[in-house]
Specification:
6 helices; 2 domains; mainly alpha; 66% helix; elongated; Arc Repressor Mutant, subunit A
Length: 119
């Protein structure tokens, strides 16, 4: 099941992916500190994520449980990026990444490892 999450909704999900199941109040406190959102804004976005099927509300205490994993979200976002910006050609995305001049030696080594696993 593909659930399109917008940037603001991904911020909600990121808090849950990093912290596990926590209350909506805790999510609001974290996002107030991180991005300055009001409790109302955070609750509205949590509700939107619930309506989309990305979050399950558990009781008591309005505990938020992510139903979409970070890997699922990354896969969807990556597929959208490839389709939108590279006309569906994943190799062009990889070429674009490899063409960046600011890759660190660690990033280069991780990329080499990934490519070697494809063989």
């Amino acid at each position: 099941m593909e659930i399109k999450l917008f940037d603001s909704e991904l911020k909600i999900m990121d808090v849950l992916w990093k912290n596990g199941d926590i209350t909506a109040k805790q999510v609001a406190e974290i996002l107030k500190e991180q991005v300055g959102w009001s409790k109302t804004t955070t609750y509205t976005l949590i509700k939107r994520c619930i309506d989309k099927g990305a979050i399950q509300r558990l009781e008591p205490n309005f505990v938020c449980h992510p139903l979409v994993s970070i890997d699922q979200a990354r896969e969807l976002e990556t597929t959208e990026l490839i389709n939108k910006m590279y006309d569906g050609a994943a190799d062009q995305l990889v070429a674009s990444i490899l063409g960046r001049s600011n890759l660190s030696p660690d990033e280069i080594n991780r990329l080499k490892e990934l490519v070697s696993k494809l063989k």
